[in-house]
Model the fold of this input.
Amino acid sequence: MSQIAADMSHSHGHGHVSKATLLRDENITLPHGAGRGLGMGLMGVGAILALLVLVAGIAGGAEGIAGLTLKHAIASYFIGTIAVLAICLGNLFLVLAFHLTNAGWVSTIRRQAENIASYLPLAFLMVLPGILAEIAFHGKMFLWLNPTYYADEALQHKQAFFYAPLHISDPVTHEPLKTPVFPVFFLIRTVLYGIVWTYLARTMSKLSRQQDQTGEVALSAKARFTASWGMLIFALTTAFAGFDYLMSTDFKFFSTMWGVYFFAGAVFSGVATLILSLARLRALGKLEGVVTQEHFHDLGKLLFAFTVFWAYIAFSQYFLIWYSNIPEETAFFLYRTDHGSIWRGLSIFLMVGHFIAPFPILLFRVVKQKPMLIGALAVWAILVHVIDIYWIVRPMVNAGDGVATTSIMQGMWADVLGIVGPLLALAGYIIFRAPASCLIVRRDPYLDESLEHRNYV
Amino acid sequence: MAASNRIYVTEANEPIYGIMAEFATPAAIYHAAEAVRDAGYSKWDTFTPFPIHGMEGAMGMKRTKLPLLVAAGGFTGVGLAYLMQWWMSVVDYQMVVQGKPYHSWQAFVPITFELGILFSAFTAIISMLALNGLPRWNHPLFKKERFLSSSDDKFFVCIEAADAKFDPDRTRALLEKAGATSIELVEE
Done:
């Protein structure tokens, strides 16, 4: 059929451009070293802004600086760094899924997903200072690290998850300890995430870049094999990272849906970031006829799918907890949605902004096809994803006071810096990384399929 | 053969449904479709053993209204489902469940979602059939022995006599020029 399709394309309104013209160097590469200064600058500035929040929090001591307590500083730092970590995880998922399903249409877009995913090691390193601060200051956000709470019955039951093989109570008398215990198991997991994510992101990127040089088909098979077991490890590490870094900000709370919830948000924002970087490349006049409205259409469908998936998971989680009415579980939602809670407005905004508003907009085909329109929605998607993480982490700063009474505005400058910093660093990395290789997987065995990709609807 | 009221009949005085032309390859029928489209015909169709990508473009077909209908059906389902549950729980038969308010929107969501899906699906299948003029018992083309190979290895264009531009000679000439391997009149 491909011969027929080629024969017909003359009169199909697409205009026939030869493969050689499409794949000319200036269309599929950025000039070597382009944006290097800008990229590295943004990365530096972003990292400094984020770390500034942490430093300000630590310097402020018990009283705090400019309305910012240490607890709040760590929370702000966490919001941005975890949001960016999720974006990178989302792109790692896309790369793995593309290989696993032997997808042909993605050859011209996969390289950008690989680029974003290969920020994972750095995104992970950015999360670490927050965790180390938590351990060093014995639990500000992670109250389970705080000896004051060691006597809590729920924590007593959950201690193995954080502290094994150590204990937070005396093994003989079962008296809760008064001194901080080192969270061995928690840290083992963290190190494991770092190793696994770095390995997977590096390997997927390396194999595809090797193929740029050699054109070896066996490299695709190798990538597919890595993706097969990599996906399994990815699922487990992502779910547990969700438990460790987000759910544990309220150690009494538990939800078996949490891992999937974190994953849904990660892929949602991951697809958005991928769309945004491709739209930017198109705006620069690159990838003309290589990444077409058909690719944006399908990426838009993915964004739409994960809008719905996130809503489905988010509502299911809320619904089951609301129905069963178990105190430990409902506290999480009651605190954020009860009448009189300062977080109620934000909860409603999240529901509308993350699902109700984008759903009907993304139904329209033209929105998904035009890089400018879907790009604008991608910006919105990244924003609501950040707000989703903010909504999980930020209220815990006031937790323990019953329904929150302090203002959202208090110390908001730290929230903004903590969010903008890591996002800038990610943007800088994408700018820095893009010229380092061809913008597409130029010798992928499925390249022809991807170039001719159409939705036929 | 031609009558002034534009009803065409065969020599045996049978009303004519249209003209059927056979083509040998997907490319041939694709270009024939473009020719028929450019000639300005509106009541005609193509018949192929398998879907040919881009054929709707070659035929100059407008986009289907189905998505709009499905959206309307879906949102109707959502609205009706919510209304139904609200009426049952708040107005008609109030019952305290777990001490929750009568109007607990959370409890209404699953049914609202399901009825949204149900109405969308029903609208989709029924509208699809209606827009395609289905179901129907028979089609004049079924009488043609040659037409059987449209489900095997041949490709057909049929232009209806009801088309305003239909003319026995000129339509035949157009199809001949488009490379038809055989052309037949089709009786009602």
Observations:
- Chain A has one domain: 53-451.
